[in-house]
C-alpha cells in the first residue's frame, strides 16, 4: 500500500470524526462499557486510516461494520472477565451525548434515551452477542438487513431470525408503559426525597411490589451480592444505607446527593469529596419504579462526569 499523504490522512480523519459519535454509541450498546467502547473505536480508527477511500462507497456503513466486528471480538474478552466478577454485574454508566441513526434526524429524543438506558442495557446484555449486535444495528441505527448480514458474515435470513428473537426478548422485558424524560426526572427526584426523608409510605406507593434492586460493587465496594426483590426489602435496604451514610463524620466524608444525567435519563449520584461514590438509576413503568440499579464499582465510575439532570 502506498504511503498515505497528509491530505489523505486529513480526509480519513474528517470522515472518522463526523461518524465517531455513532461508532462510540454502537460499540457502547454492544459492550455496555465506556472504556471498552473507546478502545474499540480507537482500533477502528487505526484500521480506517489504512483504507483506500476510493474503494469505500458508504463511509458510515463501512465504519459501523469495522466497529461492530471489533466489538464482538471484545465481547469474548468481557465474558472471560465476568466469570470471576464479584456480585451482580451492571453496565458502566454513560454520561456523554447520545448518538444513533447517523442522519440529520436521529429520531425522538425519548426513544433515543431509552435505547441506551441502564434498564435497556441490562436487557441487551442478556442477549447473545450476535442478537445484541443485530438489535443495535437494526433498531437503533436502522442498518438494512443486507448490510447487517455482510457485517456479521451471516445470511440475510439468519439475521432476520436473530432480529426477531432479539426484538421479542427486548419487548418482553421492557416497560409496557414507557415514560418521557420529564416524567422520569420527576419520579427520580421524588424518589430521592422519599429515601432521604425516610418516608416509607411514599416509597411504598412508588415501588412495584415485585421491584428489583441490583447493586454492583465489583468486590471493590460494599454491595449486596444478590439482587434484592420486593418493595419492603428494598426500602429497608435503601433507608439503612442512607442513614449510615449520613451518620458519617462531617470531615469531608459525608456524602451529598444530587440529580445528574446518566444514560440519557435523570439519575441520582452520591458524591464523597466531590467524587462519584454511588450512581442510582431507576427503571420506571408508568409511574411505578420496577427496577433500581446502584453502581458502586469505582472502576465503572472513573469516567463518569457529573452534570445537570436532562433539560
TrEMBL record:
InterPro entries documented for this protein: ECF_Sigma-70_Domain, NTF2-like_dom_sf, RNA_pol_sigma-70_dom, RNA_pol_sigma70_r2, RNA_pol_sigma70_r4_t2, RNA_pol_sigma_r2, RNA_pol_sigma_r3/r4-like, WH-like_DNA-bd_sf
Gene3D superfamilies: 1.10.1740.10, Winged helix-like DNA-binding domain superfamily/Winged helix DNA-binding domain
GO BP terms: DNA-templated transcription initiation
Superkingdom of origin organism: Bacteria
Record-annotated RNA polymerase sigma-70 region domain positions: 15-81
Pfam families: Sigma70_r2 (PF04542), Sigma70_r4_2 (PF08281)
Residue span(s) of domain RNA polymerase sigma factor 70 region 4 type: 119-169
GO molecular function: DNA binding; sigma factor activity
Keywords, ordered alphabetically: Sigma factor, Transcription, Transcription regulation
CDD domains per the UniProt record, alphabetical: Sigma70_r4
Subunit structure and binding partners: Interacts transiently with the RNA polymerase catalytic core formed by RpoA, RpoB, RpoC and RpoZ (2 alpha, 1 beta, 1 beta' and 1 omega subunit) to form the RNA polymerase holoenzyme that can initiate transcription.
Family: Belongs to the sigma-70 factor family. ECF subfamily.
Name used for this protein in its record: Putative ECF-sigma factor
Species: uncultured Propionibacteriaceae bacterium
Amino acid at each position: 500500500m502506498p504511503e498515505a499523504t497528509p491530505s489523505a490522512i486529513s480526509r480519513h480523519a474528517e470522515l472518522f470524526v463526523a461518524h465517531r459519535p455513532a461508532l462510540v454509541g454502537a460499540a457502547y450498546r454492544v459492550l455496555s462499557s465506556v472504556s471498552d467502547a473507546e478502545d474499540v473505536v480507537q482500533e477502528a480508527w487505526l484500521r480506517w486510516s489504512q483504507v483506500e477511500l476510493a474503494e469505500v462507497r458508504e463511509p458510515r456503513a463501512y465504519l459501523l461494520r469495522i466497529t461492530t466486528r471489533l466489538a464482538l471480538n471484545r465481547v469474548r474478552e468481557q465474558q472471560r472477565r465476568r466469570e470471576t466478577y464479584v456480585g451482580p454485574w451492571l453496565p458502566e454508566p454513560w454520561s456523554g451525548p447520545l448518538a444513533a441513526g447517523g442522519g440529520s434526524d436521529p429520531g425522538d429524543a425519548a426513544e433515543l434515551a431509552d435505547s441506551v438506558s441502564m434498564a435497556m442495557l441490562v436487557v441487551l446484555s442478556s442477549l447473545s452477542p450476535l442478537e445484541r449486535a443485530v438489535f443495535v444495528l437494526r433498531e437503533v441505527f436502522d442498518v438494512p438487513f443486507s448490510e447487517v448480514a455482510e457485517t456479521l458474515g451471516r445470511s440475510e435470513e439468519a439475521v432476520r431470525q436473530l432480529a426477531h428473537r432479539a426484538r421479542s426478548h427486548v419487548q418482553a422485558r421492557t416497560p409496557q408503559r414507557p415514560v418521557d424524560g420529564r416524567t422520569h426526572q420527576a419520579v427520580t427526584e421524588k424518589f430521592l426525597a422519599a429515601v432521604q426523608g425516610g418516608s416509607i409510605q411514599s416509597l411504598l406507593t412508588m415501588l412495584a411490589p415485585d421491584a428489583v434492586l441490583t447493586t454492583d460493587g465489583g468486590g471493590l465496594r460494599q454491595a449486596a451480592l444478590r439482587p434484592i426483590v420486593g418493595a419492603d426489602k428494598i426500602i429497608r435496604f435503601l433507608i439503612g444505607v442512607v442513614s449510615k451514610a449520613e451518620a458519617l463524620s462531617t470531615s469531608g466524608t459525608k456524602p451529598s446527593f444530587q440529580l445528574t444525567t446518566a444514560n440519557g435519563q435523570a439519575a441520582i449520584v452520591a458524591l464523597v469529596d466531590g467524587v462519584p461514590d454511588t450512581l442510582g438509576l431507576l427503571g420506571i413503568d408508568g409511574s411505578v419504579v420496577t427496577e433500581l440499579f446502584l453502581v458502586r464499582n469505582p472502576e465503572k465510575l472513573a469516567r463518569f462526569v457529573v452534570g445537570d439532570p436532562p433539560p
